[in-house]
Amino acid sequence: EVQLVESGGGLVKPGGSLRLSCEASGFTFSDYNMNWVRQAPGEGLEWVSSISISSSFIFYSDSVKGRFTVSRDNAKNSLYLQMNGLRAEDTAVYYCARSPPGYCSSHTCRNWFDRWGLGTLVTVSS
Amino acid sequence: DIVMTQSPDSLAVSLGERATINCKSSQTILYTSNNKNSLAWYQQKPGQPPKLLIYWASTRESGVPDRFSGSGSGTDFTLTISSLQAEDVAVYYCQQSYTTPLTFGGGTKVEIK
User: Rounded to the nearest 10 degrees, how much is the dihedral formed by the CA atoms of B28, B110, B63, A24?
Assistant: First the structure.
């Protein structure tokens, strides 16, 4: 069974940092592109970042570019999101999501999300 | 950025009746390499993560009941629930997978009338 388990969320002050992790199991992690998608309380879905299979191609939304860094460790079946310079508007549930392979290039990632974790809540407040 | 616009924001449908949700993209999302439209649909129930229903505009994900179907091309797309069941109460989102930034519609809440 495919499982994606996020961790690392919590309460942080504006300007602070957090590192989210996503541990994958039940599939060959190194065969899939991976993503972070977030959802502010009571709001819709917002794509945050995508990373290709071998980390060759990485993309961010404009709202997090320069502040967040996505990475993966295929040996550990894990995806990460380092979040710096956090703002109140970053408050959200952060989901780790899997995407089928073959659709990332240097220009773009044509990803849809076929499996999701349960999410981890990040709250940015003083 | 490609803007995805869903309508209506919410709808109430009687059990067993048809529910139709619309999604419009601000530009064409046809992937010319395979001549398929880069549009996915998700279902999100309260307190749960989204679940993929449809990709490539009309390909049903494995395990999704066949009462869910996707259609459309170019910039206009539709998710149809042919016979609404109680367990279909949820918020539904469309998403373009044509290019980054990947973008979602604002969601449509489906309730029982």
Answer: 80
pLDDT in the model for residue B87: 98
Dihedral sign for Cα B19, B111, B50, A5, please: negative
Q: Backbone phi, then psi, for A31, in 5-degree steps? A: -95, -5
Residues in CB range of B65: below 8 A, 6 or more apart: none
Q: Does B38 touch chain A (CB under 8 A)?
A: yes
pLDDT tens across B58-105, in order?
Answer: 999 999 999 999 999 999 999 999 999 999 999 999 999 999 999 999
What are the beta bridge partners of residue B54? B41, B60
Report CA A37 to chain centroid distance, whole Å: 6
Residue linked to tokens 């550990």:
A76
What residues in A contact B99, CB-CB < 8 Å?
107-108, 110
Contact status, residue B104 vs residue B97, Cβ threshold 8 Å: no
Q: Helices (DSSP H) in chain A: which residue ranges? A: none
pLDDT tens, residue by residue, B12-58: 999 999 999 999 999 999 999 899 999 999 999 999 999 999 999 99
Q: Chain B within 8 Å of A119 (Cβ-Cβ)?
A: yes
Of B49, B93, B102, the CB nearest to A95: B49
